[in-house]
């Protein structure tokens, strides 16, 4: 059984691993000059002892490391890149360095959280837009530093996000107001995250809006796919194969919605005359393609998370749960259904 991490120091790790203090330090900090087999042995001992690099031992005379770890599941997607851009701009202006950890996929994610407590010395960790499982929460908390989240999460950390259910209701209420009664939902999940489900708020909004309008829900009008444009196109094809297709489609994201638009156009259907389509996010392509959507201020969420973190590190008062408002943006992809 692992010993209490507060009673363990680097000398204990070095002694158990059979190496010098200097070698243990280099191995734990991933520095050069250590054989890979030795590094693995030291890290294994640190894991066994639940050793955490003491923040006090790593701080400079100024009282801080000046580094923040940012964990992000995707860096090539617009949403994550824009969120990171806002966060990094605020932290850079405060002379804080950002250490970026890209956990794209289940194996990367498992390896990151397994090695996390002993591998870096940082003042804080920011988790961007993915749910943190209970075991991962425990690994993060072993670091003994400030942890915040931005862009949506399912963990008890200070966070900045939108209300997904409110955003979904804005999209659904718009379609119902136009007169649509047979409305489909294309729900999206992230296959790279373990146990990931479609954003519950966006799905809850679909059923709640139908219920409040007195419209019976029909599970044949619900398609759940992996997150992406091609997947949205495939889902739309399945919805069109029904004897009585929908007159409107509510997609969990603009990328998914634009995939649906491609299928509709290839099928010779007019938008919005034959089918209305709406998404969520206000992706840059949404304006170019005249897509009705619900706008969320992505960069602003990153900036607010950065300011929240700075306030916490400085010991200043701050709001720990910030919900950023969303806005329905009506464009040319929605209209009343045909008579």
UniProtKB/TrEMBL annotation:
HTH lacI-type domain segment(s): 8-62
Keywords tagged on the record: DNA-binding, Transcription, Transcription regulation
Protein name stated in the entry: HTH-type transcriptional repressor CytR
This protein's record includes keyword Transcription regulation: yes
Alphabetized InterPro entries for the sequence: HTH_LacI, LacI/GalR-like_sensor, Lambda_DNA-bd_dom_sf, Peripla_BP_I
Pfam families, alphabetized: LacI (PF00356), Peripla_BP_3 (PF13377)
Origin superkingdom: Bacteria
Chain's gene name: cytR_12
Claim: Membrane is one of the keywords in the record: no
A GO MF term: DNA-binding transcription factor activity
